[in-house]
Amino acid sequence: MTKSKRIRMLPALLALCVALSACGGDSGTPSSDGGAGQEDAPQEGTSEADAGTDEGADAEGTQAGGEKVLNVVVGKPSVVEDMNTNEASLWLEEVTGIHVNYEQLPLENINEKIAMMLAGGELPDVFLNCGITAAQMTQYGVEDQYLIPLDDLIDQYAPNLIEAMEPFEAQGGMDLLREVDGQIYSLPEINPCFHCSRALKMWVNDQWMQELNLEYPTTTEEFKEMLIAFRDNDPNGNGIKDEVPLSGDTNGWYTQSAYFLLGAFLPMSAYSQGFGLDGGKVVNLSADERFRDALAYLNDLYAEGLMDAGTLTQTNDQLKKLVDNPDAPLVGAATAGYGGQFTTEIGGDRYQLYRPLAPLKGPEGVQYAYSAPYTPGTGNFVITKDCADPALAMQWANALYTGEACNTIFNGVEGKAWRYAEDGEVGSEGQPALWTALIAYGGDVGSTRNDCWTQMGVYNFSAEWRAGQTVDPNVDLYSADGMEFLLYKTTKEMYDQYDMDDYALPALKLTEDENFTVSPLRTEWNNYFSEMFFN
User: What's the CATH number for 200-369+496-508?
Assistant: First the structure.
C-alpha cells in the first residue's frame, strides 16, 4: 500500500474510533509505577492496630486452628529476590497477623499467564501486582465474576484506603475506581508523582556535547543539527563510525523517543493513539496536518541515520545494553522517565553522562511536553471468587495504605532503610521533611534485594510524602542519592510550563464489546505510526 493510500484510509479508521470514544476509551498512558516513582508519607504514630486487621471483624482465617492465611499470586519484579522471605513481607506479617503464601510469577508476559489462570482452574485468594488490564477487568470481573466486587468490603474494612482517596474527590473520588457496571473490582495504586506526570523527558550525552563544543538545542532544526554532529564527528573518540545519535525502545517507562518529538508540532498523545480533548470534546489528531508534519520530521531523522530503528522495535533491555556498551559510549540521546530506564546503574558512569533537554520548539513555534493529569491506577489488587475469606484479604490490603507500610515496602525496614525526618531537615519544596532515605533508591535496576518490594502492588505514595523526602540541597544531582531531586527540579524548571494537561484524554472505561472493537484499531494505529516512521 502506498503512503498516500494509507493516509487516505486513516480518516475512516479515526471516524470509527471517535464514535467509540463517545461511550468510553482507555487512555493507554504508561503507568507511573514503571519507573522512579517513589514513596508515601509515613505517619508518625501509626499504630499496629491501624496498620493491621480490624480486631472487631470476624476474620476466621483460612486454615484450621484460626491461623490467618492468604494465598496470593504476585507479579515479582526481577530485583526482588523472594517474596516469601523478604524482610518487608515478614514485617507486614508481623503487623497484620496474616501469613501470606506468595506464588511468584515473573512479570514478562504476565497478562497472558493471568488470563490462562482466570480462564480455568483453581484461583488464588488474591492477584497482586499482576497488572490486570482494563479489558481483563471487564471480562473476568464485570462479565464472568471470577473477580468479585469490592464495594462493601471497602466500606467495612478499608478506612485507610478511603482516607487515601480523599484528595481525589474533585475528580470523582472512589468513582474513579468503578468499572462499567458501577462496581469496584480492583484497589488502586496511589502515586500522584509530579515528575511522573511529565515523564517523557529527553536526555542528552553531555560528554559528547562538551567534546564537540555544542550548545543544547532549543528547536527541532537545532536538534537535528546536534544529531548530525553526533553521527559525523566521532564524539566517543574510538575512530569508528558507531555512534547512535538518538535511540529509544518500545516497552520502557517513557522511553519512546519518537513520541517526545511530537510535542514540537501539536499537543498529541501517541500513548492514547492520538485521542485527546479540544474544549472538552473528544478529538483525534491523527488526520491533522500537523501530525503529518511531525511524521515527516521523524521519517527524515530515520532516513538520515539520526534516529535508531530500534526506537520502534527494540526492548528496554536492548536499549540498556546499547547505552551500557562496555567498549565505548554509543548513544547520544534517548528519552526516559528517569536515567534508570536507559542504563542499569543509577548514579553509575553512563548514567552520569546524560543531562535533561527541555521540550523542543517546532517550525511553527509549538512547544509541548507530554503530560496527563494524574488519576489512581488499578489492576494490581483483585480478590477472586475462590477466596474463602474476602474480609481478611481486604483487611490485609488496607494495611498497605498506611504511611509506615508503604515506606517499609518501598525502602525496607525503619532504621535500616529509612527513618523519620529530624528537625531542620527539608523536603524538595523547602518545607520541613517527613522522612529520610538511608539507602539510595534501586528501583527496577541493579542487583536483587530481599529487604523491600521496591515499587509494586498497591500503596499510597501521597504527594505530601513524596515532597517530604529529605533533600540535601548540595547533593550531586546525578548521583543515586540525588535522583529524586533531579527529577523534581527538571520537571519544575524545564517541563511543567509546557504541559498539555488541557488536551489530555482522561482514563475511561470500556465494555467487553467495546474493548473487542477498539483493540484492533489501536493496533492498526500503532502499525500506521511505525509505517510512516520507516517509509
Answer: 3.40.190.10
What is residue 56's predicted lDDT score, i.e. its pLDDT?
38
- The number of CA neighbours under 13 Å toward the Cβ of 528 is 24
Pairing of strands 99-106, 69-76: parallel
- pTM comes to 0.76
Q: How far is CA 438 from the centre of its chain?
A: 24
Distance CA 478, CA 75 (A): 30
Look up residue 314 and give its amino acid: Q
Residues of the chain by 3-state class (helix, strand, coil), percent to 5: 40, 15, 45
Evaluate whether 32-56+69-195+375-467 and 200-369+496-508 have a shared fold. yes
User: Grid cell 559525523 — which residue?
Assistant: 232
Which among 89, 111, 39 is positioned nearest to 380, based on CA atoms?
111
Contact 511, 25 (CB under 8 A): no
Query: Angle 26-28-32 (CA atoms, 0-180°, nearest 5)?
Result: 120
Residue 251 gets which letter from DSSP?
A: S
Closest by alpha carbon to 467, among 431, 437, 443, 497? 431
| CB-based contacts of 243, cutoff 8 Å, min separation 6 | 230, 231, 234, 235, 236, 330, 331, 332
**Sequence letter at residue 120:** G
Q: d(Cα 102, Cα 469) in Å, to the nearest integer?
A: 30
Q: Which helix (H) or strand (E) holds 418?
A: strand 418-420
Indicate the range of 186-200, 215-229, 379-393, 441-455 predicted with least confidence. Answer: 441-455
CATH for 32-56+69-195+375-467, options being 3.40.720.10, 3.40.50.920, 3.40.190.10, 3.60.20.40: 3.40.190.10
Q: Angle at the Cα of 174 (from 113 to 68), degrees rounded to 5?
A: 55
How far apart, in whole angstroms, are the C-alpha atoms of residue 158 and residue 263? Answer: 41
Residues 333 and 257 sit within 8 Å (Cβ to Cβ): yes
- 105 phi/psi in degrees, rounded to 5: -120, 135
Instruction: Give mean pLDDT, residues 123-138.
Output: 94
C-alpha cell at 353: 553522562
Q: Say if residue 270's pLDDT is above 70.
A: yes
Secondary structure of residue 283 in the 3-state scheme: strand
Contact between residue 261 and residue 224 where contact means Cβ atoms under 8 Å apart:
no
Q: Pick from 375, 407, 410, 468: which is nearest to 165 by CA? A: 375
Q: What is the DSSP letter of 252?
A: S
Q: Name the pairing type of β-strands 126-128 and 381-383.
A: antiparallel
Q: Containing H/E element for 289?
A: helix 289-303
Nearest-angstrom CA–CA distance, 272 and 504: 9
| Calpha distance 418→363 (Å, rounded) | 48
Concatenated DSSP letters of 153-204: HHHHH-HHHHHHTGGGGGGTGGGGGB-TTS-B-SPPBB---TGGGG--EEEE
Q: Percent of the chain at pLDDT above 90?
A: 65
Tell me the domain boundaries of the chain.
Answer: 32-56+69-195+375-467, 200-369+496-508
Q: pLDDT at position 2, please?
A: 41
